Amino acid sequence: MVLSRAASDTDVSVHSTFASRYVRSSLPRYRMPENSIPKEAAYQIINDELMLDGNPRLNLASFVTTWMEPECDKLIMASINKNYVDMDEYPVTTEFQNRCVNMIAHLFHAPLGESETAVGVGTVGSSEAIMLAGLAFKRRWQNKRKAEGKPFDKPNIITGANVQVCWEKFARYFEVELKEVKLREGYYVMDPEQAVEMVDENTICVAAILGSTLNGEFEDVKRINDLLEEKNKQTGWETPIHVDAASGGFIAPFLYPELEWDFRLPWVKSINVSGHKYGLVYPGIGWCVWRTKEDLPDELIFHINYLGSDQPTFTLNFSKGVQEHHGELPGERHGGEGGPGEDGALQHRVQGRGRAAGGLLAQGPQPARRVRDLR
Ligand SMILES: Cc1ncc(COP(=O)(O)O)c(C=O)c1O
């Protein structure tokens, strides 16, 4: 929890069951202790308290049932002390991120020429990716409006009411009005007709979800694209689409390769995906990829040169661990081009997610329409 609460009389001290002369008097819970204690005692006390947490291997309730291959653990431990921000110090790590971005962009059919590199960034998760994608849409819309001499102070974004909380956060933090398409009995995702109906000249983008948080269902991105195509032709607004593929981005390309939801659709300009939603990647990794360089306004990219060379960055945080990049890469490599390998981690993830989605669907108000129904 981000916000802490005030200590009550009963919980001002840590009640450790660990017997040692170092803990003869209770350790304060919310204040720095007066005296130091040996590291072994500190370890024991903290470890004892952590035993009250749930066991991630038994966590079937959320998206983050986590286990990784022992080889990934080894790679992660080998790089746990690197700070990603020092790109000059850790050029191979930067290269790994770039490879992942390119693999994902190709997987999502970004229109890249043979020698062209993809535009994207590794993030802490889909939430950060969505903040960045949203900012890019807002800035592009503002630039267009300014160039046309029109007001640019009332941006809005269209989503379904089933949207994950990070979209509400984006809207509130970055002052964009969130216009939600209401759900209705028996239909628990964004209705494409209603969504495009709500688009106006101030709409920075329509955000479609591939894998709704409520029931795992895919929204009909192709239909939204086709309707927007018509509307954009009539209005000249050029309203784009972002696909929140946090949960579906590593499912759809493998289970439903014919389903058009990604950069095959011309109005899809950016896509986010979580690395950690599939059970076989530890939390802390997401991705945002843009269709082309033009879809990410240059002024949002900061060029720093603290260590000598130019380092372009587009992230919310400066410092960050690198271990998740190293952990995720074996999954991508193992899977190989164009699909998961025989026992690749991507394949595991797909299977793992299939199980997770099954669990989610079963909990929904009624069995969700499967993706086939949307084609
Ligand atoms: C559709 C959707 N978008 C975004 C997110 C946020 O993802 P993350 O936890 O990676 O920040 C979630 C998480 O549940 C989600 O289901």
TrEMBL record:
Family that this chain belongs to: Belongs to the group II decarboxylase family.
EC number(s) stated in the UniProt entry for this protein: 4.1.1.15
Biased composition regions of type Basic and acidic residues, renumbered to the chain: 325-336
One MF annotation (Gene Ontology) recorded for this entry: glutamate decarboxylase activity
Amino acid composition bias (Low complexity), ranges on this chain: 358-368
Catalytic activity: L-glutamate + H(+) = 4-aminobutanoate + CO2
Cofactor section: pyridoxal 5'-phosphate
PANTHER family, A to Z: GLUTAMATE DECARBOXYLASE
Gene3D superfamilies xrefs: 4.10.280.50, Type I PLP-dependent aspartate aminotransferase-like (Major domain) (3.40.640.10)
Renumbered residue ranges of the record's region Disordered: 325-375
Residues annotated with N6-(pyridoxal phosphate)lysine modification: 277
High-level lineage: Eukaryota, Viridiplantae, Streptophyta, Embryophyta, Tracheophyta
SUPFAM superfamilies xref list: PLP-dependent transferases (SSF53383)
Keywords: Decarboxylase, Lyase, Pyridoxal phosphate
Protein name as catalogued: Glutamate decarboxylase
